What we know:
three-stranded antiparallel β-sheet, 7 helices, elongated
Amino acid sequence: xxxxxxxxxxxxxxxxxxxxxxxxxxxxxxxxxxxxxxxxxxxxxxxxxxxxxxxxxxxxxxxxxxxxxxxxxxxxxxxxxxxxxxxxxxxxxxxxxxxxxxxxxxxxxxxxxxxxxxxxxxxxxxxxxxxxxxxxxxxxxxxxxxxxxxxxxxxxxxxxxxxxxxxxxxxxxxxxxxxxxxxxxxxxxxxxxxxxxxxxxxxxxxxxxxxxxxxxxxxxxxxxxxxxxxxxxxxxxxxxxx
Length: 242
């Protein structure tokens, strides 16, 4: 029976039968794929704990007629426990995995999305930066990789040099007064600065912004996410931004 191996992030799981689970993963080579973990819900399972959401694993599967089956698993990124021990990190990780699940089509290579998610989960597990900022940075970068990088300086419609004071989600970024459509969000200069820092990974600048600016930016990112995914992320409403 044909087999394949990949390094993958576990995105989500759901029950199958009495003791099995279907594991949805984002792999370095295979993109998003699903496989059955046989007996992983039993307390005696040797691999069940390795196939939980937020884990990064080296997994081997054999190909089935309808669903593949996990045959071997080794942990390469044990991020689930430290993430689940912190509510803010847990809610941020759940939103990130949900976004990755939505952004990547099954069976399509997604190397950049894999590395981006793996790095973001590691940052959450290590507590390197505030969890809400890690989430917002991940979302902005993930949409950029998907082809929806926002324009933060020049006008997204006419290209007029900025800075500008408004952001249009449908147009994809900052807009000048002449192009500003109804419903555009008025953003402070600090919010634009924060968005740029989140995309570029300028953490000192991002972490120096006050609570009000972070809330302003995160609200816009939520709207940007909902627009491009055509529905909101269910996990976003649970994110702890305190």
